[in-house]
Amino acid sequence: MQKLNNRAESHLSSQVECELENLGKRAWVNQAYCGTPPPVHRSISTVYNPQPLFHSQLDSMGKVSAPNPYPAENSVMNQYHEKKSSGCCSFLLRGLWGTTLTKDTTENRELFVRTTLRELVVYIVFLVDMCLLTYGMTSSTTYYYTKVMTDLFVNAPSDSGVTFQSIGTMDDFWSYAQGPLLDGLYWTSWYNNQSLQTGTHSFIYYENMLLGVPRVRQLKVKNKSCKVHKDFEEEISDCFDVYNEKKEDDSSFGLINGTAWQYHTEKELKGSNHWGMLATYSGGGYYQDLALTKEESAGVLANLNNNLWLDHGTRAVFIDFSTYNANINLFCVIRLVVEFPATGGAIPSYQIRTVKLIRYITTWDYFIIGCEIVFCVFILYYIVEEILELRIHKLSYFKSIWNILDVVIIMLAIVAIVFNVFRTIKVDKLLGNLLKEPSIYADFEFLAFWQTQYNNMNAVNLFFAWIKIFKYISFNKTMTQLSSTLARCATDILGFAIMFFIVFFAYAQLGYLLFGTEVESFSTFHKCIDCRKHRYCGFIYFCSVETNPKLSNMFLAIINDTYSEVKEELASQKDDLQITDLIKQSYSKTFMKLKLKKEKISDVQKVLRSGSKELEFKDFRETLKEMGHADHEISAAFSKFDYDGNQILDKEEQETMKQELEEKRDALTMHTLHATLTKPI
């Protein structure tokens, strides 16, 4: 058996042998191949599952200094990890919530990159889940639903040609209300006058169920709420000021009896403020609910018209109603507003909110439930992560804009979760009351408003979530250019912003004072931009505004110069460990492990090719031990095929061992070939 120690030429190439020699004491050394001194005793893996036996030259790159967002906190990090160095909970926390801020990655660039990549992978899963949730709440049919309702209630003309948008007087309002409004609200028959057979329910466009009954509400101001100049006191006895909640009229008028003639507070109506074109109006006032049929509603409106429901004090009229389309599971909450300014005339405006208030019906909706559960788990995960980071870094945690962004995303997500629960409960309650009393007004305005804000908040949160990706890819030199450029030029941009807004507000005030009485775009301060009507001043104003592009060019110049500086500095810096380096390193380790594994199998195969009919364990052990194999590995390999347990491998047992080793070798050859073909360039 000793002759097996004198191997033929090594299966390793000279290049690989050289590489192994340079790897130092952690490399595996086989005395059977060279005259090297005995290695330091360490466990060598089995011939089937060897452990990593070396580190490639790329391992040394782990010693490159990694950028640390908290350089002054290294001692704090060390103390923290010393306290948490033992225990199952500590292991769990380090494993699940190990980040670049909870691990000491200052002196280990490889650890920094690996930890960042792990964070990135987890975060991408979270981002995908968040995208599914956000887009799952929207529908491509939302726009078309809003459009058909707009065409019906805003653009449809009356017999006299009055549309909602063209309302200019109180008379126009009544023409619209008793014409296009009633025609649009009540659909009880087909185009051939055949009944829809839906009972008293109206199905607008044959598809959209009118929920409950519509409501008409007005707000008035008191007489004598303003002061008439003494020169006109004899001719003008009444004075109704512009709308102000403090000057709101709350006295009964007209027919006295009935909700249309008696004032109701915002609390009684469970209403909310409305931001109109001229003022912000309260949720109270005088209201009249219409009926379930067109004929009854026409009578109600005629009664209001004949008894002068609208008068000098009227400042705003609201028409509210809601529809539901079961085909697409969407609510359309409509508010038509006509404001009557103190100047006379009328200013119409409208809000049509198409929202999804009932969440779980289709298979896709139930899939979204799963995504919501995953989202909640992620939020809990990130809450724990931020708490751990905050414990370590205390108030210095908030020095990083990325950490602040983390907190913002988590807070918005928590608000979204709470609102989701609130909306579900509230909608169920509203629909329950509506089913019990179908003739009541269905007030979905409050829910529709907050659902819209909820959607907007989710859109902003998703935007922030995408921006946060830069946090995890900033270790890459190319990706660092953007964040470094913005950070470096922040001071210059702040100075420029102050200068820009001084000029901007100066022009806004100038435009308001010059053209506010003639041009709608300058009628209020916040509209004062991009318009010119006055023959002389307008020309001067327009020419001076043209200097604004020069300010924009200054802004771009600041960023461009800073970017050039950052790019030049990064080009002169030494390359740190990059993702490609980790891929190459992983490839090298895998490739070398495969080669070494094949060598281990070759050792055993050489022993088996001795030709002995019976191979004793003693000879098997001594030969393989001289080749560098550990005792327990030799015993495990031998006992696996020593079926009778007599410490001797007979011919049959040797053949079985040879066959399995050959299969292992073939499999390793295929793995090696695959690794070679997929070698990174």
In short:
The protein is of the alpha+beta class.
Task: Describe this entry's structure for a reader.
The protein is α+β, with helices and mostly antiparallel strands. The chain has 20 helices and ten strands. β3 and β4 (280-281) form a beta hairpin. α4 packs antiparallel against α9 (363-393), α13 packs across α16 (548-572) and α14 (490-515) runs antiparallel to α16 (548-572). The longest helix is centred in the middle third of the chain and has 36 residues, at 401-436. It starts with 13 loop residues before the first helix and ends with a helix. The relative contact order is 0.10. Keywords: Calcium, Calcium channel, Calcium transport, Cell membrane, Cell projection, Coiled coil, Disulfide bond, Glycoprotein, Ion channel, Ion transport, Membrane, Metal-binding, Transmembrane, Transmembrane helix, Transport.
List keywords for this structure.
single chain; 681 residues; alpha+beta; six-stranded antiparallel β-sheet; 10 strands; disordered N terminus; glycoprotein; EF-hand-dom_pair; disulfide bond; muscle alpha-actinin binding; coiled coil
